[in-house]
Specification:
single chain, mainly beta, Jelly Rolls, seven-stranded antiparallel beta sheet, 2 helices, 6% helix, iron
Length: 320
């Protein structure tokens, strides 16, 4: 998990919280389901799931994790989206993206691809030719962020956020690296531009280290464990590999790494995420997320009629 890092974490700005800030308690811990996505690549999916956890404004979180042999790597061939945003963040491996709006590029270690489908778009996400030919380790996440009703018909947009653009921060004890992808942690802001206000960060905690971050009381708050063992909340609720903690009301989110870490990085790797709940009706069908059933029917008809764009001929053969 190379992701973005620094040689000396102590030179980074530190995330601090007010002494009288209210800790957000853990309201629920859920496990991920294991399933296949796209052309058949394995994912761990903490939500949506049978728990019914309140993840608004997020729709789906897939953790893509695989050790591929040569010729095994798979991706997601051309498919449509409407009504939400896809955020793909890679820690290991390489994806190549194309879309019918002209966006595209290569995302690899520490990069983020942020695609706003809005009114409708076609795209694909495929492993690089090198990864297919040689095999290798692949580790990344894809997050679906719902768009408010007023933005569901926005023009499609593509953001290519290279790892070097992330805001790097340190925990107050100097034992944790925070990569802020989008939103705010106190006075610090990430580079991602969002329609729906959210906060998204990848945290690496050394064994025994603790991180407390200020969190908007209006936002939902979750912690998903990419790898390792540790604890969520000031109450130290156990939170291990592939599990999701959902937090209750308050101003501060806290996670703590266990004293023993046996993952590839030797650290407690956690995704922190939350956002302003939209509290709007959700109608969804596969790659379409709207507010009403009639809008879903319209999305299917628009896709079938080619009104969401067409596959560029120059992209039919693979990488651009």
């Amino acid at each position: 998990m190379p992701a973005v890092t620094v040689s000396d974490i102590l030179v980074l700005p530190r995330v601090t919280t007010a002494a009288d800030a209210a800790q957000r308690p853990v309201s629920r811990v859920t496990d991920s389901i294991r399933t296949l996505e796209g052309a058949g690549f394995p994912v761990r999916r903490p939500f949506p799931g049978p728990s019914g956890a309140d993840t608004d404004p997020f729709l789906l979180l897939d953790h893509m994790l695989a050790a591929y042999e040569p010729q095994e790597a798979k991706g997601a061939p051309w498919h449509p989206h409407r009504g939400f945003e896809t955020v793909t963040y890679l820690m290991d491996g390489t994806f190549v993206h194309h879309d019918s709006n002209g966006g595209g590029g290569v995302i690899s270690d520490g990069d983020t691809q942020w695609m706003t489908a809005g009114s409708g778009i076609l795209h694909d996400e495929l492993p690089s030719e090198e990864l297919v030919m040689k095999g290798g380790y692949f580790n990344g996440i894809q997050l679906w962020v719902n768009l408010p009703k007023a933005a569901k018909w926005a023009k499609p947009r593509y953001q290519d956020i290279k790892g070097g653009k992330l805001k790097l921060l340190s925990s107050a004890d100097g034992g944790g690296l925070v990569r802020l992808i989008a939103g705010d942690l106190g006075e610090h802001s990430g580079p991602g531009v969002t329609y729906t206000p959210i906060t998204l960060a990848h945290v690496s905690l050394s064994p025994g280290a603790r991180l407390s971050v200020p969190w908007s009381p209006e936002f939902s708050a979750m912690a998903y464990v990419l790898s390792g063992d540790g604890f969520a909340g000031a109450e130290n609720r156990p939170l291990g590999d592939a599990k999701l903690a959902t937090f209750g009301p308050g101003d501060v989110v806290t996670i703590t790494a266990g004293k023993q870490q046996n993952g590839r990085t030797g650290q407690y790797e956690v995704l922190l995420l939350g956002g302003a709940p939209l509290r709007e009706p959700v109608a969804r069908y596969g790659p379409f997320v709207m507010n009403t059933r009639s809008e879903i029917i319209q999305a299917v008809e628009d896709f079938q009629a080619g009104r969401m764009g067409s596959v560029p001929a120059t992209h039919l053969g693979g990488e651009a």
